[in-house]
Amino acid sequence: GESVGLHLPTLSVQEGDNSIINCAYSNSASDYFIWYKQESGKGPQFIIDIRSNMDKRQGQRVTVLLNKTVKHLSLQIAATQPGDSAVYFCAENMNDYKLSFGAGTTVTVRA
Amino acid sequence: SQTIHQWPATLVQPVGSPLSLECTVEGTSNPNLYWYRQAAGRGLQLLFYSVGIGQISSEVPQNLSASRPQDRQFILSSKKLLLSDSGFYLCAWNREVNSPLHFGNGTRLTVT
C-alpha cells in the first residue's frame, strides 16, 4: 500500500491568503521528499524538495517543512493566486528509484 | 535545457488491440527513465523504471511491458489491451536517485 498520504483531499483558500497543505508519511527510513503541482491534463510539475537532514526549505512563495519526529511534511504557499489552483502531491524516496506518491490534495483558490 | 516528450497525448483503443507509447528525453545523457500510471483522482503508481539501455525493472505485474532501445527513448507496450489498462500514463526522468523527477505531459489512454 501507499506509505504517503494527505490529511485532506481538498482545500479551498481565498486569493491572497496563505495555503498549507499537509502530508503524512509512514516510512521513517525515507530520506528525500518532493512536492509536485499538477494542473488538469498535464504532468506533475516539480515545486520543491527537501532532504531528511533539513527541517525547512524555502523557494519562491513556497516553504516546505519536514517534521521527522511525527513523520509529517507540509507545503506552505504564500499569497495564494488563482494560478495556484491545482492538485498537489507529496512524494517520498528511500534512496532508491521508487518515488512513492500520496493521493493528492485539490487546492481551489477563491477570487 | 532538458525536455521530455510523450506521444500521443490521447489515445482510444479497443480491447485486445496492441499499444505503443513513446517517450524521449532531450538535453541530457544516461537519464533514469520511468513510466507511471495515474488513475482518475488518484496518486501515481510506478510501473517501470530503467537505469540504462536495455535495463528494465518492473514494479507491478500487469499486462504491460517496457523497453529502452536507445539512451533517451523509453517505450511502453502491450500486446493485448484490457479495459483496466485505461488511465493517464506519464513518462519521467531524473539524473540520479534522490533527485527530482521531471514528467512529460502524459498520454490519456481509453480502452473501449
Task: Describe the protein.
The complex is a heterodimer of chains A (111) and B (112). With 111 residues, chain A is an all-beta fold. Helices cover 0% and strands 54% of the residues of chain A. Chain B has 112 residues and is mainly beta. Chain B has strands spanning 3-7, 10-13, 19-26, 32-38, 44-52, 55-58, 65-70, 73-78, 87-94, 102-103, 107-111. Classes of the chains: A mainly beta (111), B mainly beta (112). Chain A binds chain B through residues 2, 4, 31-32, 34, 41-46, 49, 51, 89, 93, 95-104, and chain B through 6, 32, 34, 41-44, 46, 49, 51, 57, 59, 90, 92, 97-98, 100-106, 108.
Strand percentage of chain A, roughly?
Answer: over 45%
Shape of chain A: globular
How far do the termini of chain A sit from each other? 37 Å
Counting DSSP E segments of at least 2 residues, the number of strands of chain B comes to 11
**Mean model confidence by pLDDT of chain A:** 90
The gyration radius over C-alpha positions of chain B equals: 13 Å
User: Which residues of chain B form runs of ≥5 with pLDDT under 50?
Assistant: none
Tally of DSSP helical segments of chain A: 0
Major β-sheet profile of chain B: 7 strands, mixed
State the helical fraction of chain B: under 10%
Distance between the termini of chain B: 38 Å
Q: Beta-strand level of the residues of chain B, as a percent range?
A: over 45%
Biggest interface between chains: A-B, 25 and 24 residues
What structural category characterises the helix and strand content of chain B? mainly beta
Query: What's the alpha carbon Rg of chain A, rounded to whole Å?
Result: 13 Å
Dominant shape of chain B: globular
Report the order of strands and helices of chain A: EEEEEEEEEEE
Report helical residue fraction of chain A.
under 10%
Helix/sheet category of chain A: mainly beta
